[in-house]
Design a protein that fits this description.
Length: 229
């Protein structure tokens, strides 16, 4: 009985490292999820293509968790990122490697990733793009929560103060304490209205808290790039 031929799919390289003598072990993001595959002859033409932020069309071979790269071709114009936009792209890649389960299809997330790379290359403001991607990733993998209702199903009050109960949602707090989120900030986040004072910085703080538990306390190497002079 003949096996089904491999089907080409769109992909981006998330990370690559040497494997054995002339091969590379590569993590890809595809509409069918995050895949890990061996790229043979990584020092040749294929290795030149296997760089982050290059849209690819790839045939993956094999049924196990570790696949092999068959045919690989460019599928469009490479996205050139520089400076903080480059660091941001590396941050997105690291988040996907750390949080996205292997071979768990998320075609919408793949499209969002590709659109975010394009927006970074166009020089759009970094922070709104990063917050939107973090939120989409958390929501797609099942860790999203409401920004307009608290954990008891009550509407988030504009003048209320809230804290995040990770994996549960927002809890209203009546005793003022450091690190809380103002209701007006949360409503602005829900509407992606970054003109509201403090909303963007509050969103960064909220996403840090929401992501931290799923990163198991291990810091993201890409975040360190932003701290370097």
């Amino acid at each position: 009985m003949s096996s089904n031929p491999p089907i080409a799919q769109l992909a981006y390289v998330l990370h690559s490292r040497p494997y054995r003598e002339t091969s590379a072990l590569v993590d890809f993001i595809t509409p069918q999820g995050r895949l890990r595959a061996v790229l043979r002859s990584a020092r040749g033409k294929a290795g030149t293509l296997a760089r982050p932020f290059v849209p690819l069309e790839i045939e993956f071979r094999g049924r196990g968790e570790l696949k092999n790269v068959g045919r690989m071709e460019s599928a469009g114009i490479s996205t050139w990122l520089n400076g903080e936009a480059l660091f941001s792209g590396l941050y997105l890649n690291e988040l996907l490697i750390r949080l996205l389960p292997a071979e768990d299809p998320h075609p919408g997330l793949f499209d969002h990733y590709a659109a975010t790379l394009l927006a970074l290359a166009e020089g759009r403001a970094l922070e709104p793009l990063l917050r939107a991607f973090e939120w989409r990733l958390l929501d797609d993998i099942g860790y999203g929560f409401s920004l307009t209702q608290d954990i008891h199903g009550e509407p988030v009050a504009i003048d209320g103060m809230y804290r995040l109960q990770v994996d549960a949602g927002l809890e209203r707090i009546y005793l003022i304490q450091p690190g809380l989120f103002h209701g007006a900030e949360l409503h602005a986040m829900a509407q992606t209205d970054w003109a509201v004072p403090g909303a963007l910085s509050a969103a960064k703080r909220l996403m840090r808290q929401a992501l931290a538990v799923h990163l198991a306390g291990k810091p993201l190497a890409s975040r360190e790039l932003f701290r370097k002079p």
